Amino acid sequence: MAVLRAPPLLLPQPLSPSSSSRSSRCPTCRGVAAGIPSRTRIHGGGSGGGAKKRLLASRRRPGAAGAPSCLPATEDGVAAAGAEREDEDGYLAREAGWGVRQMGRIGEEMRRVAQVQAEAFHFPVALFNDFFFDFFKAEVLSALIYRVRNSPPDRYACLVTEEAEPTTQLLQAPYEKIVGVVDCTVQHEEDILKHLQGANEYLYVSGIAVLPSFRRRKVGTALLKACEALGLQWRHRFMVLRAYEDDDGARGLYAKAGYRVVSRDPDWVTWVGRRRRVVMIKELPIHDNQIGQQ
Prior knowledge:
The chain is of the alpha+beta class. The chain is 29% helix and 18% strand. The protein has helices at residues 75-83, 107-121, 129-150, 166-171, 190-193, 219-233, 248-256, 288-292, and strands at residues 93-95, 98-102, 156-163, 178-187, 202-210, 238-244, 260-264, 277-283. Residues 1-32 are annotated as: Disordered. This is N-acetyltransferase domain-containing protein. InterPro entries: Acyl_CoA_acyltransferase (IPR016181), GNAT_dom (IPR000182), N-term/lysine_N-AcTrnsfr (IPR051556). Residues 111-285 form the N-acetyltransferase domain.
């Protein structure tokens, strides 16, 4: 009997130096718009969750009012921008009772993250589905551990959504509250950089996963908002993600959040049985001089 396996998680390209914007104009300061994926499947067009990096368990969140106003192009100004997004509970973002923070380097929490991502990626099979799911979940966990151990703190982060209500926190262990996951990776793919004026790097959002029973409850909204808050903290001007071209729900929500399509996969990908993807980008309200001081 042939063994069915889910596609392996992809590894990122080597990372380049920090981004530097050369535009002479500052983008209009505005609040960080939020958007949500329409379903539990990963909305990265197959590239989600593959960065081989390490992450820190620091917990920070943006202020409830969204992005800050323009700050002086000094180290103190950049620090103030980050401080404006900190929260006493360690959340990068809050939305509809959910809180988003960086994943902690704790065994049970990492296993929970692998569970959420495996449920999002796994395609059921007719026979021995439980066996194949457990096998795939082990692969996801192995890849996550590798990223945790090998990532600088400002190049990769796994963000998790949990119920932030105090009553729920008392009844559950921290890892049991995790219902959504997303990966944020600093990348520098040339085919994407040509669409990002003056940038050497960007923050790539992938692996958005939500447990089935928590769909359409703004879990994804909180995840995407936190990704943008992290991009502001790391002083990246551009957010980038991929979505399937035929996934109108996801594309519509990303467009509403401020993302726009800049490129598509070539037609020939459909000849080999693959779904076409689109690349969508969003520009964040960060001063050029702030980015240049990275």
